[in-house]
Design goal:
By secondary structure, the protein is α+β, with helices and mostly antiparallel strands. 37% of the residues lie in helices and 14% in strands. Strands 5, 6, 7, 8, 9 and 10 form a 6-stranded mixed sheet that branches. A 4-stranded mixed sheet has the order 2-1-3-4, covered by helices on one side. Strand 1, helix 4 and strand 2 form a beta-alpha-beta unit. Helix 8 crosses helix 10 and helix 10 crosses helix 12.
Length: 362
């Protein structure tokens, strides 16, 4: 996974924060308004598809997957470029499928994952335990799900999870969401769960066969990702199943985690999806319908709570700037930040992410 461009991030952090700014946090803006990019699934067959394959194609096309299915008859032979991508030249092994990234990045022609086009393998592509849980959490109000891809070394994996959980818990206790202007239409929330700072950790085993396609989507963009397979790595996932990038074990330090959270929890400085880092995962979710359901559930819960007598409301939480130290930061003597400092600090923070995260920027 290639290193994010520092020049691109400076541009996104400084210029886009002006004309295209809104007060909705990045994670919520992405959940409500960033449609997931469509992957491309080429189905190779020799002659007419059999009835079972036709049924599978129909099932995929009628699902909520961000996936475009492209049947390709190769009766006259599999093209060389597909052979190089792992598609078998022996026509008796067909039908076969090959998954490619959406047409939004430089790695879009690379084959992410491939396998026989049968019911069992298609199910591995369509969904997996980790993706189900990620979708459930994001739709229930989690700001981001930090997916830990385990190395297989239990001690190292547990250590990485403990480090991550402790820091995220601290960030939850001190971070505050941007204040929204009730008179600004661009800062109005759409349907969805209650807006809150909620950061959670989810573990995924590399050895789980049901996660084979998911693992490929996370790390197939670049050969360089293979060098991290012996250690636990983390992928922050937000929005409609969008992975921000790869965070190696050695980068799970307060400064890095704080900067990533600042990016996700801060105001959406750029409303254009393509100017933000990250790439979408294949998810079988009707996000718009599920957000409406989440809104209805939230309203029902609020009505139930309103019918119960409550005590005096709690004081508004103090807004604290997140620093690398585990101790609450002290206010500098006599420091007054000028109006232009916000975008500059955001850009500076994102530069740190560029030097740490290794991810695709489609």
């Amino acid at each position: 996974m290639r290193l994010l461009s520092v020049a691109w991030i400076v541009y996104a952090g400084l210029t886009a924060s002006n004309a295209l700014a809104c007060d909705i946090p990045v994670f919520r803006y992405a959940l409500e308004r960033w449609m997931a990019d469509a992957y491309r699934l080429t189905v190779f067959h020799a002659g007419p598809l059999d009835e079972a394959s036709k049924a599978l194609v129909k099932k995929l096309e009628e699902s909520n997957l961000n996936l475009a299915v492209i049947p390709l008859d190769v009766s006259k032979g599999v093209p060389e470029q597909w052979k190089a991508a792992g598609v078998p030249s022996d026509l008796s092994q067909l039908p076969w499928m090959a998954l490619r990234y959406p047409l939004t990045g430089e790695a879009s022609d690379a084959v992410v994952w491939s396998g026989r086009f049968d019911a069992k393998t298609v199910e591995v592509l369509r969904d997996s335990p980790s993706r189900k849980e990620i979708a459930r959490r994001l739709l229930s109000g989690h700001s981001a799900v930090w997916l830990v891809v385990e190395s297989g070394n239990a001690a190292e994996d547990d250590k990485a999870v403990k480090t991550l959980e402790e820091r995220l818990k601290y960030i939850e206790s001190v971070a505050a969401l941007p204040e929204r202007d009730p008179n600004d239409p661009s800062s109005m929330l759409g349907p969805g769960p209650e807006l809150a700072v909620k950061l959670s950790v989810l573990r995924m085993s590399r050895k789980d066969p049901t996660e084979a396609a998911m693992l490929a989507m996370l790390e197939a963009a670049d050969e360089e990702s293979k060098k991290f397979r012996a250690v636990p790595v983390v992928f922050p996932v937000f929005g409609r199943g969008r992975a921000l990038g790869l965070v190696p074990k050695d980068s799970l330090v307060p400064e890095t985690l704080d900067q990533i959270c600042m990016l996700l929890l801060g105001p959406c400085s750029c409303e254009i999806k393509g100017m933000h880092p990250g790439w979408d995962l294949v998810m079988d979710v009707n996000w718009d319908e599920e957000l409406v359901r989440a809104e209805e559930a939230r309203e029902t819960a609020a009505e139930s709570k309103a019918s119960v007598p409550t005590s005096e409301p709690a004081a508004k939480p103090e807004t604290v700037t997140i620093h690398g130290s585990t101790e609450p930061p002290q206010k500098p003597d006599g420091t007054v930040w000028p109006a232009w400092a916000g975008p500059v600090l955001i850009a500076a923070g994102v530069i740190v992410i560029a030097l740490i995260l290794r991810g695709r920027a489609p």
